[in-house]
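OP here, attaching both records as promised.
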Amino acid sequence: MEDVTASLLLLLCGSLILGPTAGSGSGPDPERGRMELRRVQSLAAQPRYGGCWARALEHLDTRCRDMTSESQSRLALRFTHCHLSSSGRDFPSCPEGSEVSRCTAGMDPVAFNTYTEFFTHTHSICHFLQSEAWQSRTESTMYRLTEASAGVAEQLQSTRQMANELMEAQSVALQAQKEILSNGEELRATLRDSTQGVQAVFSDLSSASRQQQVALSQLFQQLSFLQSFLLMEAHSLTSCCYNAAALCTAYLITSTPRSSRARLLLLVLVCVNFYLEKKIYQHVLSSDQPEHLHVEQVSVYVAALRRLSVCVALCVLLLVCVRYRDPVQQSLEVLQQLRETQSSLQEALRRAGECPGETWSGSARLLCRSSSHHASVQTPPPLVEDRKVCPVVEVPVGKNPVLRPPPPRYSLRSRRRSDVI
């Protein structure tokens, strides 16, 4: 590895030394290009026409990188324009982007010779710039290779050291393996004895664990039976107390006349609730779920059933109370209707007694009007203009009206007697 690195370094050094020399033999002189570049740079530093030279130098790197005749001709045109302008001579019009032949066609011999000289100088300057760029790249490459070779040398040194350490470790490992092989027989005998002892201990432990498992299973069965019995008794006691309280509450609520018709329904509902609670508890205990969940499930189901029973009882009680009708109030309403009917009949009889001498014509009739609670009195149209108007009595619907002659005039005593009756 070190030999290869040394060979690469020698090759790069030879190319760095021989590269510029070979280029000078086959092309323009780099020293001449360097001198021309310095002269153009000094002209660019002049205060009056330095701007023109400076603008020409801005395109020098780009044009020289292409290294074509077109790019060198345009650089020569820029240098010629600057030189003729500083010398006070005219330069033909040459717009940006036009062809070089059109720009040189209108030149006089002096301007064309100047253009030709600057074309040669431009070639030398570009060759000098390229040689400098190649030399800088070569130097940077040599520097990187030198650093890489130093790193490779360090890695080789560390690799050699690691190889030595690995050989030492391998020798130590071989010695340890020899010691392990020598002690293997003793360890095998010790392991055989310990294995036999562990197997005997495990057999004793397994027999003892089986006996303990049988005892624990019996204990758990007894505890499960005790838990189920206690839960049954507690639930029965709670259910009896709750339903007894519900029966008392239903009896007290239905003790009023308005709610007395709901008593039987509420008592039946309490009995149904008690029966369903028993069924729920039996169903939960007979299920395959773990026993520690039985109490929670019974509580949830019983609570839901009791809420439902309370809602149904409230609905029944509310319905009975809403549909209740007081018989006393109904009797009072009927009596009031009878009184109003009696007063209206008495008023009609009184008005009929005020016209005893008048004869009833065929046009007089009884007008009946449907009324559910009381009777009213209507007056028929007059028979003759000079006669008195006799009232017509309207009787309730459902009775056949009978035309009767007008009764005789009542006295004050008979009228009072009829009012009393």
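Record two, same layout:
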Amino acid sequence: MAAGGRDLPLRRFFVLLAGCPASAIASRFALRRDAPLGRTFDDASSAWSRSPADRWAAAAA
């Protein structure tokens, strides 16, 4: 195996990261101060949700 072969997934990550607009990266990884721990902000419903499954259940209801 070539030296540095283990770094390939990490390099791929940074190549993808470099191709993204800065605003998309910032909005994806930015944490809001009032965010409850372990929750994400769902812009579509403007509500805090525990998981994607919770959002899907609410959308289906």
